[in-house]
Amino acid sequence: MLSLPGAVAAEGPDAGVAWHYGDPVAEQRALVRGEAFVDLSHRGVVRVAGPDRLGWLNSTTSQALAALPAGTSTESLVLSPTGRIEHDLHLLDDGEATWITVEPGEREPLVAWLLKMRFTLRVEVEDVTGAWAVLGEPSREPGDGAGPVWVDPWPGPVPANEGGAADTASYAAVPTPLHPGAERPWREVLVPRAELAARAAGRRAAGTWAAEALRVEAWRPRLGLETDERSIPHELDWLRTAVHLHKGCYRGQETVAKVHNLGRPPRRLVLLHLDGSTHDLPAHGDDVVLAEGPGRVVGRVTTAARHHELGPVALAVLKRSVPVEAPLFAVAGSAAGEPRPVAAAQEVVVAP
């Protein structure tokens, strides 16, 4: 796709695919209209086969997978023993095997961990990234049967079981029907890598700039950007699609249950509306500080973007104690030692 006219290569976690094709604003609008695709061929693809696969994945990850119907898309997290997020699995079972796509750079450590966890179970784990590629599309359609299609379940809904207790949980400040993610259809289409160019021929391409701006608008967390070594699902409202609260034991479950039942997460995800009068846009890891007083650091920017309607915006993770009305600065360049404060106003994502 980098050979397409106007393609500009992305950097950072999306290196290897196009950042944009010359007009990122028009590309965003094309995605909103459902008229473009995004090259996600840098994502990893893992295939798990064998009769024990669903029960095994159910016991090792955060989602209820033991009875997952064929063709159903879901999401699951691999957590550390202390409940920290290690892997995010976009997962679909086709009745014969379970297909998983993961962030760039995650496939090798994920495959290594899965192989160590097999023990004597009848499962086969295969890294098929060399044979299969991913295209992102603004659609919730399950596909035409030509290949696996993962439909993003974000933002829910958050269902209730017969007893009235939710199988998952929402930490958002708005009910699911009003969640901005409800306006963002998204799916990942798995394509034989040899057919990638043919599948894209004659279609409008959009870069990761456009896709990321719409993800930020939808409050959708992404592994490696919204997460760090301390992240737990509650801070990012990730229980709503990736964690089941009434399934059997799995690694990290104690932390999930304790925080959900006894307290609130120590940090919370917010959307920052940034001052558009400057050209500065903060980068991943830049500080967020209080605008009043000595400029105390209260969080960090996770993903910043220029949105075609909202202007400059960013997702950020703040300390839960930061007042929702507090004026803030996102300090562009602080991670690189060249701080340039940009005024920021909070929009609450995870309720304090």
Number of strands: 18
Separation of the first and last Cα atoms: 42 Å
Strand order of the largest sheet: 13-16-15-14-17-18
Low-pLDDT windows of residues: none
Strand content of the residues, in percent?
25-35%
Biggest pleated sheet: 6 strands, antiparallel, barrel
Gyration radius, in Å: 20 Å
Q: Based on CA inertia axes, which overall geometry fits?
A: globular
Order of helices and strands: EEHEEHEEEHEEEEHEHHHEEEEEE
Count of helix runs: 7
Q: Estimate the mean pLDDT confidence.
A: 95
- The SS-based structural class is alpha+beta
* Helix residue percentage: 10-25%
Write the layout of secondary structure elements.
Elements: E1 8-9, E2 18-20, H1 24-32, E3 36-39, E4 44-49, H2 53-60, E5 73-79, E6 85-93, E7 97-102, H3 107-116, E8 124-127, E9 132-137, E10 149-151, E11 187-192, H4 196-200, E12 204-206, H5 208-217, H6 239-242, H7 253-262, E13 267-274, E14 287-290, E15 297-307, E16 311-319, E17 328-332, E18 340-348
Parallel strand pairs: 3-12
Antiparallel strand pairs: 1-2, 3-9, 4-7, 4-8, 5-6, 6-7, 9-11, 10-11, 13-16, 13-18, 14-15, 14-17, 15-16, 17-18
Question: What's the short story on this structure?
Answer:
By secondary structure, the protein is α+β, with helices and mostly antiparallel strands. It has 7 helices and 18 strands. The strands form 4 sheets. A 6-stranded antiparallel barrel has the order 13-16-15-14-17-18.
Keywords, separated by commas or semicolons:
352 residues; single chain; 18 strands; six-stranded antiparallel beta barrel; five-stranded mixed beta sheet; alpha+beta
